[in-house]
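Box 3.1 — From sequence to structure: Lactate dehydrogenase
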Amino acid sequence: MVKPKVYVTRLLLEDSLALLKERCEVEMNPGFKILPKKEFLEKVRDKDAILVSHTPIDAEICEAIKSHCKILATNGVGYNNVDVEAATKCGIWVTNNPEAVKGSTADFTWALILSTARRIVECDQFVRAGRKDWGPLNLLGAQVSEKTIGIIGAGRVGTAVGKRAVGFDVEILYTDVAPSATFEAATNGRYVDMETLLKNADFVTLHVPSLPSTHHLIGREELNMMKPTAILINVARGDVVDEAALLEALRDGTIAGAGLDVFEREPEITPGLAELPNVVLAPHVATATKYTRIKQGEASARNIFAALDGKIPANCLNPEAKG
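Predicted structure (token representation):
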């Protein structure tokens, strides 16, 4: 029996593809670089499904694959690299994996909160440099427990961050387009407007998608509302924060620090940001655990299997597409 053909757009963990390979013939881009469009179109010209990792999928690609491709299964939660409207017009389902990544993303949010507040990177550098002038006034950091955390975005990840916050005995404020009974039941958090959150939170953490309405959601005006002792955390999408305004705020002491896993022009970051001691930088690795990578691959495989069987997949972003 001929197996359905699937193309994986970037190098992924082999273990994460085990389930997919049980039913499908899998071809994978052997590197991390995104293929030029002409080469990519040649690779997918006979594929029944595409497992998408960061690769841009535009209307031209959708048109080229519509006769044979049933699904564009994005491997992560973000899908702003895929033209969902074009895929829908071409009868191609698009899915994402919000459930698979929420735990590791929430864990990493707290890793950044603690690393930034307690100056862990500076502590590590201090010890590695062989410094012997240890003392009670060295590398004073910010208290985390018994403070106030402000969570912007009350979806799966925001709720998971809030659940972890309970153990730190913090006051939890949150905001979103509307109050969330699910968030409040899980965290006992209090719904407030954006301005109230920014003015009162000691830690502000972002968990919203990249949309026109969230572009530069945190800019100069919002940073000026925050406490001078506050710390901003972004594991969402880079363009949610005006990076130039953030650089200025960190330099000027408008806020005390930041922990960033995402950037506006990845992998490039705004010049000057890396030189600042009050920011912790990570290369978009919030979901980077073997456990999560395998969960992502298995979830993508199940979405692809459903599409191949003519069923609307779980986490389908465009169920109106005929598939």
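Summary of the box: The mean pLDDT is 96.
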